[in-house]
Amino acid sequence: MASTSASSVQKSFKYDVFLSFRGEDTRRNFVDHLYHALTQKGIYTYRDDEEIKKGEKISDELIRSIKDSKFYIIVFSKNYASSSWCLDELVKIMECQKTNEHTAFPVFYDVEPTEVRKQSGPVEKAFEKHKEEESAEKWKKALREAADLAGWELKNIFDGHEAKLITKMVEEISLELRFTNSSVDGKLKLILKKMFA
């Protein structure tokens, strides 16, 4: 069962934001606070509420929700790479990111960008069990690509103060949505003007 928030004006996507995270690390703290801050701002947000069972494949509903989201917030934590579900989700997010219709923002919650990029430190430890899996190379590539994106590193922003980071993230996403919606509105007005001229 997925949770969603009050709707904002969006032209071509079902969700404004899709949250990708490892539940055991961040569901009941950072992600929960972020989700509620986004929804209070009227940002339509997808957060998967189901605990994923070990060995399960990413669901069709989740893939649709990824495709139907304008922005992705990927919360990298110590155990993110231990979940094949999270890694499959990340691969799909990075595929969508390349279309220029979507934008992904990584959050480095308790890991550093270089640890995600190089699969070192806690990320290497979490990824260890996947090294022999068929999908390992595409997962590594997706981790590298995501770590190269501009995002937020908790420990380097507001001295690790989560609430301040969440406020900043919500402000930036809100601004991006206003820009996106005003661009769409402008194009729509131009089309209508031509139709009725």
From TrEMBL:
Annotated keywords: NAD
InterPro entries: TIR_dom (IPR000157), Toll_tir_struct_dom_sf (IPR035897)
Cellular component aspect of the GO annotation: nucleus
One Pfam family per UniProt: TIR
UniProt domain TIR: residue ranges: 13-177
Source taxon at top rank: Eukaryota
GO biological process, one term: signal transduction
Keyword NAD attributed: yes
Record bears the keyword NAD: yes
Annotated coiled-coil segments of the chain: none
PANTHER family, per database record: TIR DOMAIN-CONTAINING PROTEIN, TMV RESISTANCE PROTEIN N-LIKE
Protein name per Swiss-Prot or TrEMBL: TIR domain-containing protein
Organism listed in the record: Helianthus annuus (Common sunflower)
